[in-house]
Input
Amino acid sequence: MRQKKLPLRGKEVGATDVDVFLNIPYDRRFVDLFLAYTAGLTSLGLFPRATLEIAGGERRLDRTLDLIQRCRYSLHDLSRVEVDASPAATPRFNMPFELGLAVAWQRAEPRRHTWFVFEAKTRRIERSLSDLSGTDVYIHHGRPSGIFSELTNAFVRSQRQPSVNQMKLVYKGLREGLPKLMRNAGTKSAFKARVFDDLRVLARALSERHMTLR
Output
């Protein structure tokens, strides 16, 4: 995999071979896994992207598809497609829908895109999305350590191969730094564009530090 030196802030949206579209739920219970994906992908020399970056004034579907098409890889976590606990109980369709967009794009341009599916429970995908039968699914068991392990399996051909322990150190630094990043952004949510941008900056600095100490 060819590596590029990427700017840390204000990254222009453009297709590169290190961009990874991150398709995950945006809720408080998923924050630790969100940080784990950010830490793990950055440690691998990849650059996580997400719909968090999409401006609110533009048609979201068009921008989502455009972002997927500009990423060499996409990672789809389907561990949270269950019915939510709100009074009007509704299943989450965003994650499988965005996976469908990625699958269609990969079929049209197989040399430009590769997608991966992550889940928390073994064989649950056979019931929740049986069309994926026969597809390799990366099972992380709902734990950051599981995400680190499965990322190393998914991106085994990456030129940069950090250890799981190195990923854990980056993750620890992100967890410690997150409260300050949220205060700086004036928000109580980790799932904001400014916070995500700052997390990527911090993750890059931490990963470079820990790779140097290897």
